[in-house]
Amino acid sequence: MTGNPLGISFVGSRMDRSDHIRGNPELLAGMMTPGARLLRLEGLDPVISAESRLEWGSLAEARDNAELVFLGRQDDRACFAQVPAAGSVAPPNPGLWQAIATLSGEELATYGGARTIVDWHARHRFCARCGHTTVLAKGGWQRNCTNEACRAEHFPRVDPVTIMLVEHEGNVLLGRQPRFPAGNYSALAGFVEPGEAIEEAVAREVQEEAGVIVRDVTYVGSQPWPFPSSLMIGCHAWADDPTVVVDKTELDDARWFTRAEVEDAMQALERNEGGSAFRAPPRTAVANALLRWWVARG
Amino acid sequence: MTGNPLGISFVGSRMDRSDHIRGNPELLAGMMTPGARLLRLEGLDPVISAESRLEWGSLAEARDNAELVFLGRQDDRACFAQVPAAGSVAPPNPGLWQAIATLSGEELATYGGARTIVDWHARHRFCARCGHTTVLAKGGWQRNCTNEACRAEHFPRVDPVTIMLVEHEGNVLLGRQPRFPAGNYSALAGFVEPGEAIEEAVAREVQEEAGVIVRDVTYVGSQPWPFPSSLMIGCHAWADDPTVVVDKTELDDARWFTRAEVEDAMQALERNEGGSAFRAPPRTAVANALLRWWVARG
Potential cystine with A220: which of A234, B131, B181, B259 (Cβ 3.0-4.6 Å)? Predict the structure, then answer.
């Protein structure tokens, strides 16, 4: 175990991915027994039991000709999930949030990993190189083009995103996207682009969105975020000049908050109360863990 | 500037990506002037001048109907690269290594960023969701499906890879892949999978490839690696039990080296000499920077 000292959500699945089985057709076929488990999903959403656990069925529940992803093994049982008819790049709706908030951290991580890969399959049924159909391969960790002249291999996406707390004289820079509920602020964030180091992506995003120059970027923690396939890379950076120039095409607002304001907002969130200077990001978001880390380091 | 204290290659381009121009057709059209520069490429390889600089031409050199990527602005001039007929997922050949080794760090970074994105376009001319053709959009930072019923938007890939130095009692664990030249060893590495935090990917890869359990994973530095589109995430971790069980399907060998052996190998590499316990990874690889960092921290 590598631990999860910051208490980041979607981390800590006990699933043993058993990579060596994926590429071995005989071993993989040997996993598909009556004792194997199939994660119950409605589309991309989990089916959650009255005891707030993920529900699992048997492979007999899979649709005919369903594409099955081998998630790995847990408690000596092979675990699968089936690819739904359609994927989605939409953010989760409030109902899904409420449902998954009842799951343990470990089960939330298992669900997130399963969701992101079956969603990828559902949205990648064709070859980006030649346009022909693709088929699931290696237990669901690859898709292969069926065109003999192409034969391209495709792999699930994991899209790195930097998300950062920028600090200046004890204050932290937070912003709000237009889609946020009123009063909500969170850490600035953006995708790492081709050709960028993590530190370069952090500096570029903060400058683009808030006009602030940063230095001394450090890594804090990471989170796999399954809506649809981000790897959130949480960082901290320092600013010498607090002047903010908000990019209104990206953000409604960005401004500095004191440590006391952040601490107050985190406590209000936990107690589900209002009255704080802003509404903090939810516990499931890595920004929440980053802010808890920042408050605690004082 | 965020600096590059570890001296990591492919980092430090001076290109201003000018994100706000990409999505604005008028501003983008305004960049396509006679003064705009076109990066000279032969396929995916750079054309390098006698002075060991990247060569740039004008947009007049682009093929008819070429797809053009807006790289950004540098020294007040707009910079473009054209999408080649074919991309490649193959590792670079020795000739390319020799050529790019003569470039400055800044120009190597500019080339790497340009290569990875034009390569992505060349290998993603079709919609993975519906199989129809796609067209370049937003100055080359997106492709859009041309099928009215689909309209999927596709974004360049950046594939996070963990690469790690595992330490036990002053020794470091290195491995060699079957494709390495004889005597070469480097840091273990592997793609971050859907559903994994960086720390979890590090732990899984080391256990899979070398049977070693790690703890206390920390981040060291990152590198965009353009062959074809990796984001190398360099980490350090500790092992309590040095027992190595090599996964022979992945590695020829993995074993522990002393700090003195690593220091000797790094010096031999710089002097282009043999005689060390192993041959260290080249200066362009992030593993080289990680090993220099590890030797220096003593």
Answer: A234
